[in-house]
Structures are given as structure tokens and as C-alpha cells.
Specification:
With 397 residues, the protein is of the alpha/beta class. It is built from 14 helices and twelve strands. 45% of the residues are buried.
Length: 397
């Protein structure tokens, strides 16, 4: 008999994926270039040529077993050492290779991080709006995800509501900055306030509270935006990173956990993650991709297009009367819908071949997400459809 638990999940498929599937089907009918698909956060800018060149060089010069064989459970030692050195130079930290664990993207990193700092029955706090898959990443470990309501004025942390959820069961705080779906970047003041509060609560409760910092959009920060490195401000931090966005490599599934060298049991985190892999099947990310990213550390795809797209969309939304917090990074924007029911709002938009994602599954009913990682030319064309949608469905008196 198949699992009733996982069978039941079929009734709660990812809304993001459902909207993306509709866009693909509609594209087959009218041409995908005519569907303004803002559903999926799939990077649109080209992989850097230097990365492609490095892959070719590795294939031409390295022993096939080194490229295609299993790596060590924690990742290739030389890669981990290079990553530690890069992080130290970039963020003034003091990582060593023993603090790094290679993962299959940020999802794999979070899957390990939650397990390494919680036990069944513990609570993990996150902040709306949040990536919907956090529910699966946390609750399926036996821990319980608790949601702090959104600060819709700025999408920073609602500390008053957070303190209401903090208790002796709190084992970790899961944050995502720059944030999917809001595009907000937590400020240095926000991180400092969070760190101070957690330090106080650790003393009060007599146990560690870790920050699990989900950071795949770390390099997509717009001009003049304050974007602190979370581990600089709080010792018990596990940084979860992916190269999916910075290098436009989502399909390669490569990332890492970096355990703050000052955190509790820092020297054990990576080796513990290797043991966790035995139970969840996230063993040994591809060796060739580990080797390739280690040769291009600090390099990114041409990310400036995302800020160009954001400004085009933000300016048009404001002109059309939307309430919207201007993103500080990522390739997402999270406006308030023009009616309370954001699902109905997004369904109406589909009549105009605009594919938007309702905010309900992000913990923010009444809002919607646009993933503007598409060509700028298509963004510009979509604005005509957006204006027609708003003017037809929500005419101003």
C-alpha cells in the first residue's frame, strides 16, 4: 500500500508549479513569447562564459574518476577549503574547510540544517511572507514550523509578534534575506535586533537557538541597499547557500552549509550533516560541479538586469495604484492585490495571459508575487497587458 501521507500531498501541490504548468500549456497554444509568465523563479540571465569554459577545461584535462566519481560525504576537501577562504576574504570571517558541508542546492542545505539543530517536537520560527516549501523542509523532520505574521509596511521582522511565539521549544529561526517572495533585504539594524533578542532568550531558556540563514539571493542586491552577512552578527548561525541564482545554475543543484566557527559544536556540524545524508539521500553532490564552482568563486552572471526589470515593474505598479514595498534585491516583487481575494485576482489576470502567483501560500493572503527573471523586452511588453487587466477589471471611479 502506498503512503497515504504523501498521497494526500497531491491535493496540495505547489501553487507556483501549478501556475508555471498553466503558462507552459498556454504557451503551446499561443506561443510562449505571448505569455507573460511571472510564476517561477528560474534565472533568465546566461551562465557566465567563464564557468562554461572551466567545465570544458575540466572535462578535457581531469581524470574522469575525479570528475564523475563520488566525492567524500562532506564534499571535496579542496573545494571546501577554497570556499572557506573565499567567505573569510569576502565577509571577514574565520571559516576552515571543517565548517563547510557541500549540498544539493539551498534546499539540501536547509534539509540538513534543520535536522542538525532540532529534534522531533522542537519549533522553528520563520517570518511571513516565506517560501512555501519551508513547511515541508521543517515539518517533515518532526519539528514544527511556526509563522510570524508579516510586517506589511516594510516586510522586515515583526519582533512584537515574534516574541509571542518564542518559547522553550524554540530551537531555530529560519530567515531568508534577500527574501523570496517580497524582495526585501533585512537591514543591519534588523539582524542586530534579532541577534540581541536570541542571545537573551538562549540565556533565559538555557539552550541554543540557531539561525538558519537561507541565502541563495545573497548577490542579487540593488544599488545602495544595506545587506549584512548574518553570521557576522550571531554566533549560532548556519548559512545555507546555493549557486542557483548567482551563477544561473538551478539545474546543477549545488550549494553548501557554512557553520559559523563560533557556533556550538562548530567542528561537528559538517560531519553530523554527513551522517544526516545517510537518512535523507542527499549524499555527495556532483563532483564536477563542485570543482567548477570552486574555480569561479566571486563570479556572478549579469545580475543587473534584475534591477532594471524591478524598476520597470515597480514604477508601473505604483502608477496603476498598487500598494507595493520596493524590493531591495532578488528577482521578486510582492504587491498587494486590488481585491482581498488574491487567488481570484490572479485568476482574472490569466485572462490577459499574465501569470501571477497568489500570496496565500506565502503566508500573506491578499498579496501576489511576480518573479521578474524574464527578458527585459518581455517585461516591457507585459506592461501593456498589465494596464489592460487593471483598467478592465478594476476601473477607477
Amino acid at each position: 500500500m502506498v503512503s497515504e501521507d504523501y498521497k494526500s500531498m497531491l491535493n496540495g501541490k505547489s501553487v507556483i508549479r501549478q501556475m508555471s504548468e498553466w503558462a507552459a500549456k498556454r504557451g503551446a497554444e499561443i506561443g510562449y513569447e505571448n505569455v507573460f509568465d511571472y510564476s517561477l523563479g528560474n534565472p533568465s540571465v546566461t551562465v557566465p562564459q567563464a564557468f562554461t569554459d572551466k567545465m570544458i577545461e575540466l572535462l578535457q584535462t581531469k581524470n574522469p574518476m575525479e570528475l564523475h566519481g563520488y566525492s567524500q560525504s562532506q564534499g571535496i576537501p579542496a573545494v571546501r577549503a577554497k570556499l572557506a577562504a573565499y567567505l573569510n576574504k569576502t565577509f571577514d570571517m574565520n571559516y576552515t574547510a571543517e565548517h563547510i558541508f557541500m549540498t544539493t542546492g539551498a534546499a539540501g542545505a536547509i534539509a540538513h540544517a534543520v535536522r542538525v539543530v532540532t529534534k522531533p517536537g522542537d519549533e522553528v520560527i520563520t517570518f511571513a511572507p516565506y517560501f512555501p516549501e519551508y513547511q515541508q523542509y521543517v515539518n517533515r523532520t518532526g519539528a514544527v514550523l511556526k509563522i510570524v505574521p508579516a510586517d506589511t509596511e516594510a516586510f522586515q521582522i515583526n519582533f512584537e509578534k515574534m516574541e509571542e511565539l518564542l518559547n522553550e521549544k524554540t530551537a531555530a529561526i529560519l530567515i531568508n534575506t534577500p527574501n523570496n517572495p517580497s524582495g526585501t533585504v533585512y537591514s543591519t539594524k534588523t539582524i542586530q535586533t534579532l541577534a540581541k533578542l536570541l542571545e537573551e532568550k538562549q540565556k533565559e531558556y538555557g539552550h541554543d537557538i540557531f539561525i538558519i540563514s537561507d541565502e541563495p539571493y545573497r548577490e542579487i542586491v540593488f544599488e545602495g541597499v544595506d545587506a549584512p552577512y548574518v553570521s557576522k552578527y550571531y554566533a549560532n548561525t548556519l548559512s545555507c547557500y546555493s549557486y542557483s541564482k548567482s551563477l544561473s545554475l538551478p539545474g546543477e543543484r549545488i550549494g553548501y552549509i557554512a557553520a559559523n566557527p563560533e557556533c556550538t559544536d562548530a567542528a561537528l556540524i559538517s560531519v553530523m550533516c554527513a551522517q544526516i545524508s545517510r537518512g535523507i539521500g542527499h549524499n555527495c553532490p556532483p563532483s564536477i560541479i563542485q570543482l567548477a564552482v570552486a574555480e569561479v568563486l566571486g563570479l556572478t552572471a549579469e545580475l543587473s538586469v534584475y534591477e532594471t526589470n524591478m524598476n520597470l515593474i515597480y514604477d508601473e505598479l505604483v502608477k496603476l495604484g498598487f500598494t507595493c514595498v520596493k524590493p531591495g534585491g532578488t528577482f521578486y516583487i510582492f504587491p498587494k492585490a486590488l481585491e482581498e481575494d488574491s487567488v481570484a485576482f490572479c485568476q482574472k489576470a490569466m485572462k490577459y495571459d499574465l501569470v501571477l502567483v497568489p500570496g496565500d501560500s506565502f503566508g500573506c493572503p491578499g498579496y501576489f508575487r511576480m518573479a521578474y527573471c524574464i527578458d527585459t523586452e518581455k517585461v516591457e511588453r507585459s506592461l501593456t497587458a498589465l494596464r489592460k487587466f487593471v483598467e478592465t477589471e478594476y476601473p477607477r471611479s
